[in-house]
Amino acid sequence: MTATATPAVKATTATAVARRPRTQLWPALGMIAPAALGFLVFYLYPTLRGAYLSLTEYNVLGSPVFVGLRNYVDMAQDEVFWNAIRVTLLYVVLNIGFQTVLAVGLAVLMHRLTKSVLIRGSLLLPYLIANVVVALLWYWMLDYNIGIVNAVIDAVGLPKVAFFGDEAWTVATIAGVNTWRHLGYTALLVFAGLQMIPASIYEAAAVDGAGEWRTFWRITLPLLRPVLVLVLVITVTGAFQVFDTVAVTTAGGPGNASRVLQLYIYEQAFARGHFGYASAMSVVLFLILAGAAFAQMRLLRAGESDLS
Amino acid sequence: MRTRITWGRVLAWVVLWFFVLATVLPFYWMLRTALSDNHALAAQSFSLLPADLTFGPFERVLGLATPEEAMAEGGSGASLSFWLYLRNSLVVATAVTVGQVLFSSMAAYAFSRLTWPGRDVWFGVFLGALLVPPIFTALPNFLTIKSLGLLNTLPGIMLPSLFMTPFAIFFMRQFFLGIPKEIDEAAMIDGAQPWRIFFRIILPISAAPVTTLGILTFINTWNDYFWPLLVGQTEESKVLTVALGVFRSQTPQGAPDWAGLMAASLVAALPIVILYAVFGRRVINSIGFSGIK
Amino acid sequence: MKRKMLAGAAALASLSLAACAGGSGGAEAEGQIDYWLWDSNQQPAYQQCADAFHEANPDLTVKITQRGWDDYWSALTTAFSSGTGPDVFTDHVSKYPEFVANGQLLALDEHIADVDLDQYSPGLADLWVAQDGKRYGLPKDWDTVAIFYNQEMVADAGLSDKDMQDLAWNPDDGGTYEETIARLTVDANGVRGDEPGFDKENVAVYGLGIPGAGYENGQTEWSMYTATTGWTHTDENPWGTHYNYDDPRFQDTIAWWYSLIEKGYAPPLETTIGASVNDNFGAGKSAINISGDWMLSTYFGYDGVDVGLAPTPTGPNGQRASMFNGLADSVWAGTDNPEGAAKWVAFLGSTDCQDLVGAAGVVFPAITSSAELATKAFAEKGIDVSPFTTHVEDGTTFLFPVTDHASDVHAIMTPAMDEVLGGKADVGSLTEANDQVNALFD
Question: For this UniProt entry, which residues form the secretion signal (chain C) (predicted)?
Fold first, then answer.
């Protein structure tokens, strides 16, 4: 179906020129009107307002005072900000890494082993629970002293792990918790992609005597690439905006080890009353996200030809 | 050859079941904690069974326990109007789901199957909204809701996500792009107007992705925490996720009411689980639409 | 008076009055008063106050909203910024200076002229007078800290409850306080911390549980030690403009405190992030915790743990010390009913309400006589709270530091203290953090 998507657009456009009225501007405007209203009022306007506020000193309670680029200059010298960028990147790499690898593995397992809806259904369960609750549940289970996970680790004779408290573990732990919540969902996306790969290709591979392992690397993965890139676009953007999980567990600690950018922005804006500075950091986060999305879109375009 | 595959298959099944268990076991721990006496939890933290089995946490959540009873089991003295919060959550999630899916589908239709100048540019602009950090827009949107006089009302909670999300438009557009052109071409030639084609032809054949998007939207709205926390502060406008906050720490250094929190989380997830049980097969089978195209 | 005669008409009118509360603009206060607090354990007691208040002032109804500590301040800030703040709210000394600086609080002086400020425990009322000389809060309660210990563990260690009541501490060798902590520490093989062969890598019960690194104030972490060395957080209090985290007395104390972790007598910082310090106590993972009186019901609630209380140790100056913190009720400047709000604050600060709160036995009311009711209520539950009250009686309290820029100071000191207690940085690094903090006041 991926293969047909792009040609379909082109075909529609081509015939439209020939047979349809030149433009369907008015109906189109009518149809996007409600969405456009939502976009203008709740996305565009606050974004522009935030961009302006990034040039001000504004503590939310008073009124904004224009300070030019000072917030950006301060940011360049703010060690905590640069640390937040590093921590966020580390989180994105770990979370996306775990999640994508495991999701592909799971999807392939399901695809090759079972069509059981029960298994797929249970894998999706964590997605039904709110982020904040998932975070607290794991905070409780992974506690060093009274958590069940460390009790099990201890029982089998391994050294206990301070999952949230040890600087070496904390970001990986948070990435793991979010992976737990999203794994089933991501795996189902990949699974859907797998189902589009024609069975005949696998049959041909089996006739050639290719083993499961070889089939995976030579056939499944390359054909899955467009789907994977799309999954990545969605998950990477989300991962950069990690907030809830950190806010209700470590609150950025120990030290600054898990102070991700969005949390630092939140603290500056709502706890420390530096809304202008927080806005400036949001602008930078926006630019980072745009850059990441742009890079991925290029990959996506590169991936589109794979199936043909 | 045959044995090698069998060995691999056994291993594969083991791995798969490992993941299923890793996914499901924490839910058992939630239930086990939710049936415990909060005072006993710390001392019996490694017991696989509920610590001093009690239905108290569920009674606290449903507002059936008096403050004295709640505090006797380590709960909080705050009163809960569970059914009111449940109603609020249902109203908000339903309205947002209907509005967002309908309006986003309409926009997606215009962005995919209608021809008009600037279409792709505007689509790109809409999609750019995906990159705006929610923290960034929270305060301005809060002020907007305030100037509309909708603070602490359910419409105030709904409004920002009622009309669209970039993801919803993207999702539906991807599906519409894949519908063969012949399907609406004929109607077009017969002189049918886009509105009619959308509601009579396109929407009906898109039942599967619409259901999927609807359920995803419902889940996300139901589980949203940060925005309703800002906008719905009164009893009358509190949704379930915000009400759960009562079980988190009340004082600096105070421990959460773990049992109550877990019970509340389970109860709050129940409507979603029911929804999921009803539409589950359909969702599981069609959840990939956003990824396929 | 007139209103009473027109009761029937007033009842009808009250609906519309409530709808445009404050719109009447008359001298008489009426309508609904929104009141916020964070501690749900106290909500039932304050609901009693609200009912009593309504009885005394039938025109006024108080509506209590409880929001947990985690969300309280950001919710308050957004509510203020949007003009929807509560009329009256429970306020903290570390937070109110910034609200005053931004014009969010109503000066109470003229509204509470007849309130006798001497009825409150000494010092509490002064905390709430800002630099402009005006009063922004009326004291509602106070807290001090004390030692919570596991009686069974103390007995097993061959110590008596009496031994626990008179511990002495110094920053050089830790004194009898450290000896006791060492004695109460037990490793996985049952060897005590003061015995040969103690395995500090494999500790089953820590002598001293710690809640964390203590942020900028160390209320329940280190302030009861530092204060006995003569050190103070700031140059003056309230309204200091210079912090003293570079002082050797402070840094030596922190170095000693950290040495407990190195010796295996206290848990490594990384293991304290997670379930709260009190839950670990409840699970039998620590023998001694230092905490505030607001945690009494939590500690005494744990199943299977017999809790004892003892006053904090005496220090180099020969005295005990406890931070003395007081909450107050403040009125938001944007209230549409300043008269009614001030009336409610005055009621909250009166014996009428504080006696009710005291009798509930959850916290010590600011009014001395009401606090005695609390002591009695705790005694009825079998809890002797004298380790907390002794500080007030002996005058060994010192006030919670009140300065400007509190949230920035908090944000700078939190990671800095984490680094030191986590063993990632030397106590000397606090000097640099102190420079950053003091730069805020330039």
Answer: 1-21
